[in-house]
Design a protein that fits this description.
Elements (H helix, E strand, L loop, with lengths): L7 H11 L4 E5 L2 E4 H17 L7 E5 L4 H13 L2 E4 L6 H11 L3 E4 L4 H7 L8 E4 L9 H6 L15 E6 L9 E5 H6 L1 H6 L8 E4 L6 H12 L3 E4 L5 H10 L4 E4 L1 H8 L14 E5 L5 H11 L2 E8 L4 E6 L19 E2 L3 E6 L13 E7 L5 E2 L3 H7 L6 E9 L5 E6 L4 E3 L2 E3 L1 H8 L5 E11 L3 E10 L7 H9 L10 E4 L13 H9 L8
Length: 522
């Protein structure tokens, strides 16, 4: 089901017609059928229309995962408006920046974020209508707002190149950028979502990642496009996820490595029921072989690594389940993020010359195809820097490709450490260090050095009750890596800072060491 759908509104229109009484969404004790979701989305759409929202206008949404999110998301689709999901972990000034930058006409806020709304309400002049889920003394409640709208479809149509949703990049460098994703971008991935992820109308899809992140919203919407039932997690709780898999007979899920790691720590995790599982996709940050091996042995299902960015509408490479060989000759592929997905092209490029590097050499990943974003909202210069005139998107990720086409991510180009003229890729050093029995988590950054310009430093989260010293870790690295790649110092930390995608915030870790100095890599 769903292969003939070509825009976001078509998802609810089609499935409400074909399977109106089948459940579309589950959140806690609350369920919603496709027919109910369509009716509610129509009501919200008509309320938005009355509030002045028209084609390609932006509607901002600030709340954690929930059924309300999907009502607003599909309401925007029914109006050919653009859904702007805001990272709810941001501080008030950052939220105000996104509301203003997107020029959102309407802002819908969840109950947990009323303090942020109260802080910014006077600073978001474009948002003429503000709606609060659960109510507010100054603004209409979401129930009041939605119930004012008619239950009829507003009937607006959207074109393939119209923007459907606008997600803001994590902003690991500078201000977040509004990534414009079109109907065409999103539906370019649906054929492989059906063929490779095997989403169908019998799928029960776990939606645990934040919906403002492409690994949350994109993954959920791909399942829904193909008729799947979605089980929504509002607050990520590893023990709850373990229980819900058996309770709802969940078949599919996308999880970041750190969540898999926490799920493995749940008491009696190996005794739960995982017989319904068909696929766990994982990605967004590196995974250690230890965590991956334990996950495969515990959850006993197909595992598939995906690599992609917001700008590529998510997955651009996939490491297939048959390439997850824990003990045999393919084991080296566990370090790979797989091969390019159908319909997309990939090159590994010398970013200074624009020429392809030889097979096996490290360069920057460039990708091309239908999933590449329309551009950055109101940032034509940034868009031109990121997308070449012939359509190649520069990911900023350093990698190499082997003779069989498998891609091995080394690092963000900007996180590379340039030490004495040698390029050190932190991910390579981190992967080596994760083999140390006392290391729970690690990040490698470049810190200033008078002789070499910069040298690697390891920032380590220790496992409890396993003694280890700085010399132990440096010696461990020297047994496995060239001397110039080894950390010259070790710093201890309780937890590494990460963005909502699970990526380590290297910029934050570097900042105290580079105050008043300039890095050669930027």
């Amino acid at each position: 089901m769903g292969n003939n759908i070509s825009n976001i509104a078509g998802i609810v229109r089609t499935h409400a017609a074909n399977q109106p009484n089948n459940i579309a969404l589950i959140q806690g004790d609350r369920t919603q059928t496709w027919g109910q979701l369509y009716e509610r989305s129509c009501m919200v759409a008509n309320a938005l229309k009355t509030a002045g929202v028209g084609p390609q206008d932006r509607v901002a949404f600030l709340d954690k995962n929930g059924i309300d999110h999907f009502e607003v998301f599909y309401a925007c689709g029914l109006l050919n408006a653009v859904s702007v999901d805001i990272n709810w972990r941001l501080a008030a000034p950052e939220v105000a920046y996104i509301v203003n930058d997107s020029q959102a006409k309407v802002l819908i806020v969840g109950p947990d974020f009323v303090p942020i709304l109260d802080a910014i309400a006077g600073d978001i002049p474009n948002a003429k209508t503000i709606v609060v889920i659960g109510g507010h003394s100054k603004f209409p409640s979401y129930d009041e707002f939605s119930s004012s709208g008619a239950k009829t479809d507003p009937g607006t149509q959207s074109a393939p190149e119209d923007v459907a949703f606008q997600l803001y990049s994590s902003g690991t460098t500078g201000r977040p950028k509004g990534v414009m994703l079109t109907n065409n971008n999103f539906f370019a991935l649906i054929p492989f979502a059906a063929e490779i992820w095997k989403f169908t109308d019998r799928t029960v899809n776990l939606v645990a990642m934040p919906l403002f992140h492409i690994g949350g919203g994109g993954w959920a919407t791909a399942g829904m496009a193909l008729g799947a039932k979605s089980v929504i997690i509002r607050d990520v709780n590893p023990a709850e996820i373990v229980t819900l898999i058996g309770k709802h007979r969940i078949t599919h899920g996308f999880l970041v490595p750190v969540l898999l790691q926490f799920m493995l720590m749940v008491p009696d995790v190996d005794k739960a029921d995982y017989t319904s599982l068909e696929l766990i996709a994982y990605g967004a940050s590196p995974i250690s072989e230890e965590v991956l091996s334990a996950s495969i042995n515990t959850f006993k299902t197909n595992f598939m690594q995906v690599y992609g960015l917001t700008e590529t509408t998510g997955a651009t490479t996939i490491l297939m389940p048959e390439d997850h060989d824990l003990t045999g000759p393919k084991r080296k592929l566990l370090r790979s993020c797989g091969k390019i997905v159908p319909g997309m092209q990939l090159r590994v490029v010398n970013s200074e010359t624009g020429n392809d590097v030889p097979t096996g050499d490290v360069g920057e990943i460039w990708v091309k195809g239908g999933q590449i974003m329309k551009g950055y909202w109101n940032m034509p210069e940034e868009t031109a820097k990121s997308i070449t005139s012939d359509g190649w998107f520069k990911t900023g990720d350093a990698a190499y490709q082997d003779e069989d086409g498998y891609v091995y991510i080394f690092d963000r180009v900007k996180d590379m450490v340039v030490s004495g003229g040698e390029n050190v890729y932190p991910a390579e050093v981190e992967n080596a260090l994760m083999g140390h029995p006392a290391i729970a988590d690690v990040a490698v950054i470049g810190v200033p050095d008078e002789k070499w310009g910069e040298v690697p430093m390891a920032i380590v989260v220790r496992k409890p009750d396993v003694p280890v010293t700085e010399d132990d870790i440096i010696s461990f690295a020297k047994e496995r890596l060239a001397g110039f790649k080894c950390p010259k110092s070790v710093t201890w930390i309780d937890a590494l800072p990460r963005n909502p995608s699970g990526k380590i915030l290297k910029k934050d870790l570097r900042a105290p060491y580079w105050e008043g100095r300039t890095r050669k890599v930027n």
